[in-house]
Amino acid sequence: MTAETHKKPGLETLRAAISRLEGHSDRRRRMLPFGVREIDIRLPGGGLALGALHEVAGGGNDALHSAAAGQFCAGIAARTRGKVLWIVTRQDVFAPSLKQVGLSARRTIFVEASSDVDVLACFEEGLRHGGLGAVVAEVARLSMTASRRLQLAAETSGSLGIAIRRWRRQTDAADFGQPTASVTRWRVSVLPSVSLPVPGVGRPRWLLELIRARAGECADFEVEACDAKGRLAPCTPVADRLALPAALADGSDQEATWARRARA
Amino acid sequence: MSVDLAARKLGLRPGTPVAKAQALYPDLVLMDADPEGDRRGLEKLALWFQHRIAPIVAVDAPDGLVLDTTGADHLHGGELPMLKDMVHRMAGAGFRAKAVVADTWGAAHAIARYGRAPIAVVPPGNTASVLTDLPLAALRLPPTIIEGLATLGVSRIGPLAAMPRAPLALRFGPDVARRLDQAFGRIGEAIVPVRPVDPVEVSRNFAEPIGAAETIARYIGKLVPLLCQGLDERGQGVRRLDLLLHRVDSRTEAIRVATAMPVRDVKRLTRLLCEKIETINPGFGIERMVLIASLAEPMDRRQTVSSLIAEEEADVSDLIDTLANRVGMQALYRFAPVESDLPERSFCRVPALAPEETKDWPEHWPRPTRLLMRPEPVQAMAELPDQPPLFFIWRGVRRKVKCADGPERVFGEWWKNDAELTIARDYFRVEDTSGERFWLYRAGDGEHGETGSQGWFLHGIFG
Hints:
The complex is a heterodimer of chains A (264) and B (463). Chain A is α/β, with parallel strands linked by helices and 264 residues long. Chain A contains eleven helices and eleven strands. Chain A has one domain: Rossmann fold (3-Layer(aba) Sandwich), CATH 3.40.50. Chain A has helices at residues 2-7, 9-22, 37-42, 62-65, 67-78, 95-100, 116-129, 144-157, 238-241, 246-249, 251-263, and strands spanning 31-32, 48-49, 52-58, 84-88, 108-112, 134-139, 160-165, 184-191, 205-213, 219-224, 233-234. In chain A, the strands form two sheets. In chain A, strands 5-4-6-7-3-8-9-10-11 form a nine-stranded mixed β-sheet, sandwiched between helices. Chain A has a two-stranded antiparallel sheet with strand order 1-2. In chain A, helix 7 runs parallel beside helix 8 (144-157). Chain A is globular, with a radius of gyration of 20 Å. Chain A starts with a helix and ends with a helix. The model of chain A is unreliable at 1-5 and 238-252 (pLDDT under 50). Chain B has four domains: 1-32, no CATH class; 35-184, no CATH class; 201-298, 2-Layer Sandwich (Dna Ligase, domain 1), CATH 3.30.1490; 332-463, no CATH class. Chain B has helices at residues 5-9, 18-24, 35-52, 79-92, 105-114, 127-131, 143-151, 157-162, 165-172, 175-184, 213-234, 266-274, 317-327; strands at residues 56-60, 64-68, 99-101, 119-121, 200-210, 236-247, 252-263, 286-298, 332-337, 347-351, 370-382, 389-394, 397-411, 424-432, 437-443, 456-461. In chain B, the strands form five sheets. Chain B has a six-stranded antiparallel β-barrel. In chain B, strand 12 (389-394) and strand 13 (397-411) form a beta hairpin. The longest helix of chain B is centred in the middle third of the chain and has 22 residues, at 213-234. The model of chain B has no long low-confidence stretch (mean pLDDT 85). The interface between A and B is large, with 59 and 52 residues. Strand 5 of chain A pairs antiparallel with strand 9 of chain B, so a sheet runs across the interface. Chain B: GO terms for molecular function: damaged DNA binding; transferase activity.
């Protein structure tokens, strides 16, 4: 990608002009790389933008529990500097688990708000302050207007804002399709762990779906869950473990195979 | 005048003649009434309530206190928790107290003394219906008037309120109508608060009453620097700040803000107060503003960290104050480790800015991201004594267990509670066929009946 931009200086000036129009040309945008090459090259700027709002939701049943999504966000927050504000409406975060992805309980301040409105107000207040490493909030509803306010607050202060979208009912999770002003949008689903040669549960694995990235493309990643320092690790490619016949792996070939079978 | 609980059980009531009581129970302990002492005690109690609950507190002689809790209840988690806390604290000090929140002083006075429940919150607008059945004595009328009304056959507030006013005023004077209106909230009644001893306080009188939010904000901006100057002279910082706004109709509006650490920063205090302006009802205008540092603490000057050593971590105490004044101090916390093997007892909440603890949770066992508030019973099938379940049914969904870790045996804390002497739990981390990971436990060790019910519970969800 960098090679491409070197070839086209016109593209670079155009980008700079657009960024000036958007109003954040004076600030060098800072990034928080994941440290996993496959993910970082897909994200514009090579990492998760600081001074921006990001959305994370759990996939499947995790839309209700946000266990994997919460762990993913804790891992990100653990890799920032400074205190972390974690805003919830119902408290069920188990603090020792945050410790296990590197987010110390000494750094994490919880706010238990009584309603979604209060959550958003505290979220914005936290982002506006600027002295926090990350602000994480568990919200069900996030309207375009609310998310734009949060995004602006994050941009002005340079804080990292993560909205964990968490719903009470599975049917409400369709809300995740609604557009918001967040810079990236992730869905985290659990995957079966790699089976060990001995009885026991292996390192948890997740399917990370980058559903939306501003100025970037969508992508899916299979990763191993956060380690004790909050870092993800790439999975060994699926193809290595599950060798598909070449004819089946590619869609067009598959059609050709079926056509051959039909003729036979 | 009054009787204690033991005497009440014997059938004695306030108002029983002493001679009769002594005739019934010769070994009765009698003490002279000490109205002056009672009044002094109530005033002390009022100051304590002012310190603890709300800025506007007054003595409601002879046996009560009246508080204006508007704008202060959210700091205690709502009206009902606030009342419970008050009554509980009074009980701890050896007093039986009743507490009521109502629209008006009159109504709260009546329901607290003549209502049935020890704690009650009358919803706004419901005052009239609650008052109807109460006796006239609840209205704070002189006994002669109550007797006079009793001879007319009126003993309850409801019928009295329904009677025509003019004949009543002619016969009993204006008091009846005034007390009725005060109880029903038709006319206002000012609460003149007790004053703490020697606080730092600044005030401003206005020639013309003010009412606009911007004007109030401007004068807050003028009062706060004066207050901070006063605090500076004493070397103090404010922990709690009360702004009293005296209205032209002799009512008082109050704003209270609290801070987690002593503060003397003009900008920060101004901001905290200005955020509360929308809660003020200026009515016909405000003629006097008083700013009181009702709780001040010595403030140390801190040495700033030199940039040579490390980058200074940003100070978030101002953010904490802003948030605490929005959601309440108890809703803002950190988790701190507690040395206990039982997951639900292994953490406690500490104030957000509490000094950092040195101990930490052990890291060698994986812990779930979410811990269910109450472990949920699941149906499970497992080989005894110590095998993980083969499948389990949670919330109506049957999940086949693919792999599992465990058991991690946790014993009851017999040193805290005798009933836990034999209790044990076996925790398993299990993964089902779809990859979801759960934390299950069996109540019991799978061999001995006295260790638990041997039922299975789901306690947490892993990410």
